[in-house]
Amino acid sequence: MKYGINLNSVIPLRAEPDDRSEMISQLLLGERFICGENSRGFCKISNWIDNYSGWIDEKTITEITEQEYEDLNKQKSYYVAIPLAEAFDLMNKCVIRIPGGSRLPNCDSIGRFSLHERKFQVHRDFILEESEISRDGLLMTAMSFINAPYMWGGKTVMGIDCSGFTQVVFSLHGYKLPRDSKDQALEGESVSLEASQPGDLVFCQNASGDVIHVGIVMDKRRIIHASGRVKIEKLDDQGIYSEEYQRYTHQLHSIRRIHW
Question: Which residue in 64, 71, 245, 249 is deepest, having the highest Cβ count within 10 Å?
């Protein structure tokens, strides 16, 4: 069995082993994975963070040993706590961009960290230690993504989808949500719109009743979600109402409260 780590800012995770295949998710800097089958220059991987599977270009893989994989997974994590940070590659003498939500192993007091054989430094104010993370400020984190463009499979401020948005925001506050909205809808407990609180998850459905969309409650009348872009819109018992389009764009399925 082979193990890998992402040393790029972000890697697209595709549905099929082809550059033209749809991007279903992304790997952020520092995320580790298990390598599976190979096909046409692509490798099927399973991401350690959320067990999400897909195909990545073999050229983007940095192979690590099983021991390094296990050691990294046990180390204390630090999170990039702003939508996009810059880190200096101390070996290659260049700057790389790190998306919010990236997990960095054992940073020191001045923001230095190592990934495989490379060493980086990031401004210490831009990262949070696991022990510093709490639910407080979740909506402020969500607001920091305002106007990020919608991109299917995206998980960064440069392009993000609805469940990528909720997954990254919640990860920055200590909770690991699954990648897809249909799986996120199984987390926590159901609450009514009237009983909802800021930070609850709102799920919307298609005509068949399947969960296809997710956002975050701002208050009982508003939701922040990624649809076209990350934005705030009206919420009621029927669903999400867009002032921009003067119509309902999403039908309400359920509201869930996450406990952590």
Answer: 64
* CA pair distance 114, 124, nearest whole angstrom: 14
What tokens appear for 100 in the block? 């919010």
Active site residues: 162, 213, 225
Contact 124, 108 (CB under 8 A): no
Q: pLDDT (tens digit, 9 = 90+) per residue, 194-238? A: 999 999 999 999 999 999 999 999 998 999 999 999 999 999 999
Average model confidence (pLDDT) across the chain: 94
Helix (H, G, I), strand (E, B) or coil at 74: helix
* One-letter amino acid of 238: Q
Which helix (DSSP H) or strand (DSSP E) does residue 174 occupy?
none
Give the CA angle between residues 239, 242, 245 to the nearest 5°.
Answer: 135
Separation between Cα atoms, residue 101 and residue 29, nearest integer Å: 9
